[in-house]
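Sample intake sheet
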Amino acid sequence: MVCIRCKMVVKEELRKLGLHYVVVDLGEVEIMENLSAVQHDQFRDALVKSGLELMDDKRSVLIQKIKNVIIDLIHYSEEPLEVKFSEFLSQKLGHDYGYLANLFSETQGTTIEKFYISHKIERVKELLVYNELTLTQIAYQMHYSSVAHLSSQFKKVTGLTPSHFKQLRDKRRNMLEDV
């Protein structure tokens, strides 16, 4: 679950089943009662109808937690990390980074680092589109060591420089204004 609507759907389906929740968070639900097999199947089916998925094996749950930590870190936190990202993830999830990295790569077909970088670049794109910050400010906010490092990583992921990406956005906006 990565959005408020998803949480609302989960809460509503739990309510329909007469279940009481303690926590409904991104990718995690804690309920007060024990689920019967029938309730479990009904809950799973209701989630699928809403475009969601019930993850009940521990590996899938851990993968989702890895993704949630990365998304929270990039999109909702402005504090720089005090430790290396690998240490941060290990501390946050209570597992060795090597185990997390192997599990993630094995099940997702990409590395944690590539997932992390792709989300950072998506966030940079958002900030470029908003046009409220300079590239220097964006590099600082996203904890890049320099504008050059940000630009290099941006080009590697998107095939465009940040300034070219911004020009394309501006050109498209101008074309839309002509309509």
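Comment: The chain has a mean pLDDT of 88. The two ends are 38 Å apart (CA to CA).
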